[in-house]
């Protein structure tokens, strides 16, 4: 079934970030609502995909301390 309003203009549409990651991207520029920044950033980091993301990365800065995907796990 074609898109209801043909907004994509024939471009590839995916159901979610997992399908996007499965394409084997080297990098992806992220421009989504702030509420999705952290979720998408963590998914791309886990997949090893470089992703410049609009600020802020998350709305919930008080929830947990920021950690780089490349940082070592906390020591006990």
Secondary structure blueprint with pairings:
Elements: H1 17-21, H2 37-47
Helical stretch tally: 2
Distance between the termini: 54 Å
User: Could you describe the largest sheet, including whether it forms a barrel?
Assistant: none
**Helix fraction by DSSP (H/I, runs of at least 4):** 10-25%
Give unreliable regions as ranges: none
Strand portion: under 5%
Task: Offer a concise description of the structure.
With 76 residues, this protein is mainly α.
Notes on the protein architecture:
The protein has 76 residues and is mostly helical. It has a domain at 15-60. It contains two helices and no strands. It has helices at residues 17-21, 37-47. The longest helix is centred in the middle third of the chain and has 11 residues, at 37-47. The chain is globular, with a radius of gyration of 15 Å. The model has no long low-confidence stretch (mean pLDDT 79).
Question: Which structural traits does this protein have?
Answer:
mainly alpha; 76 residues; globular; 21% helix; 0% strand
